[in-house]
């Protein structure tokens, strides 16, 4: 693939006003990206900035200009060789080869794969499969972005700059139809790889220095009390739907995420201070401890499945299907119950935080402990949801007939 390349010789300007000869620098520009270095020569005679060489015909001027011509020829020879050998071409690579620093340049997707392979070997030892899946998706999006914009299979780390990052963000939103927060997550994954490259000194500066993540707060959906009643009272003729409904309700009254209820065993049930049963389990996502008193609804669901085969075969408390199947069946369940919201296993966690606890006066610090949040800021999102619900309800109330009329003066 051909590139636009230019070579410019110029005198390096200095802040101090001295009479010392200025050093001559070479600037290589490839596809609008620059790299420069000192030629180790000084312009003692008058410098011709238009021609990029020393003026005059003195012996020194002829010697310096001849050296600059030789340097220009060598740079073009390096460029041609890289093209013939189908190797990456950039101003930095050409400069490094000329200066004898032609070690193998680390490539972005190559380093990304090394990171993901190491992460895969640590699944269950600090990383989850879901985290690996997101990093693999980020690498795939970068691969497609390179093919889409540059028709390349990889790119040297030294060519990554702010323009590349902002272009990738636009590509995710425009071509991949990613929501703002989803695109930001992929870029944050990308940022980690570049910070790793900086730490290993594969690059000289951080291209993410001027990029700041900007998360948009989105309103969490949850079930109201009426919707919970409709769900719990519904009778199903299909066993799998009843089973998925029961697991969903259990999550609504415990706040457990799918991964945590899926791994729940008898060992996670412990006696509390007042003799009630508590769930104490470490969240798979953050490893923080969730401490949850077992509410009657959740206790009833556990009792319902106490003779189920899952207790003996898998040593689990509940027969949890895969997350994909559960979410698919929840869509069916929502239709049968007349619920228009998009039911997912995670919506149950939102329902616990809002309808079951915060809206009924449970303090935020208590809810945060039960949810296993590592920061109270995470729990505060649900308080904002409740405030917005109050605002919407009061707005609807204002549309009704006033209870009393204030007499005018």
List the helices and strands and how they pair.
Layout: E1 5-11, E2 22-30, E3 33-43, E4 47-48, E5 53-54, H1 59-84, H2 91-98, H3 108-120, H4 129-150, H5 162-174, H6 180-199, H7 225-233, H8 239-252, H9 258-262, E6 269-271, E7 277-282, E8 289-293, H10 296-304, H11 310-313, H12 323-337, H13 345-357, H14 364-371, H15 376-398
Antiparallel strand pairs: 1-2, 2-3, 4-5, 6-7, 7-8
Helix pairs in contact: 1-2, 3-4, 3-6, 4-6, 5-6, 8-10, 8-12, 8-13, 14-15
> How many distinct helices?
15
Largest sheet: 3 strands, antiparallel
Strand order of the largest sheet: 1-2-3
According to CATH, the fold-level topology of the largest domain is hpI Integrase, Chain A
Look at the helices and sheets and give the structural class.
Answer: mainly alpha
- What is the percentage of strand-forming residues? 5-15%
How does CATH name the architecture of the largest domain?
Answer: Orthogonal Bundle
Task: Round the Cα radius of gyration to an integer and report it.
Answer: 32 Å
CATH superfamily of the largest domain: Intergrase catalytic core
List SSEs in N-to-C order.
EEEEEHHHHHHHHHEEEHHHHHH
CATH class of the largest domain: Mainly Alpha
Spans where pLDDT lies below 50 across 5 or more residues = none
Strand tally, please?
8
Shape: elongated
Could you give the distance between the termini?
84 Å
Q: What is the count of distinct domains? A: 3
Helix content: 40-55%
Arithmetic mean of pLDDT: 88
What's the short story on this structure?
This is Site-specific integrase. This protein is mainly alpha-helical and 409 residues long.
């Amino acid at each position: 693939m051909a590139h636009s390349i230019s070579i410019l010789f110029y005198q390096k300007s200095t802040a101090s006003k001295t009479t010392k000869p200025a050093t001559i620098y070479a600037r290589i520009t490839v596809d609008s990206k620059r790299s420069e270095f000192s030629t180790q020569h000084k312009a003692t005679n008058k410098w011709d900035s238009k021609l990029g060489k020393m003026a005059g015909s003195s012996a020194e001027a002829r010697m310096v200009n001849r050296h600059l011509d030789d340097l220009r020829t060598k740079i073009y020879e390096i460029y041609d060789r890289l093209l013939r050998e189908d190797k990456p071409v950039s101003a930095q690579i050409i400069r490094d080869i000329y200066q004898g620093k032609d070690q193998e340049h680390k490539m972005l997707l190559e380093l990304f794969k090394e990171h993901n392979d190491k992460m895969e070997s640590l699944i269950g030892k600090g990383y989850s499969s879901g985290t690996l899946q997101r990093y693999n998706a980020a690498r795939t999006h970068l691969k497609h972005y390179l093919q889409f914009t540059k028709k390349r299979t990889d790119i040297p780390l030294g060519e990554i700059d702010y323009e590349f990052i902002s272009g990738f963000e636009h590509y995710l939103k425009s071509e991949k139809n990613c929501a703002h927060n989803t695109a930001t997550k992929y870029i944050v994954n990308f940022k980690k790889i570049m910070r790793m490259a900086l730490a290993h000194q594969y690059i000289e500066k951080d291209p993410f220095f001027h990029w700041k993540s900007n998360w948009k707060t989105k309103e969490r959906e949850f079930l109201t009390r009426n919707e919970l009643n409709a769900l719990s009272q519904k009778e199903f003729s299909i066993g799998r739907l009843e089973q998925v409904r029961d697991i969903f309700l259990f999550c609504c009254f415990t706040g457990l995420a799918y991964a945590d209820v899926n791994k729940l065993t008898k060992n996670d049930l412990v006696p509390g201070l007042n003799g009630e049963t508590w769930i104490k389990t470490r969240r798979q996502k953050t490893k923080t401890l969730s401490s949850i008193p077992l509410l009657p609804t959740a206790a009833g669901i556990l009792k319902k499945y106490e003779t189920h085969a899952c207790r003996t075969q898998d040593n689990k408390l509940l027969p949890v299907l895969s997350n994909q199947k559960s979410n698919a069946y929840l869509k069916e369940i929502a239709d049968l119950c007349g619920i228009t919201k998009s039911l997912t296993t995670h919506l149950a966690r939102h329902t616990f935080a809002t309808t079951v606890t915060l809206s009924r006066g449970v303090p935020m610090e208590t809810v945060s402990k039960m949810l296993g949040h590592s920061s109270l800021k995470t729990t505060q999102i649900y308080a904002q949801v409740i405030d917005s619900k109050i605002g919407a309800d009061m707005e609807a109330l204002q549309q009704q007939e006033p209870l009393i009329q204030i007499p005018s003066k």
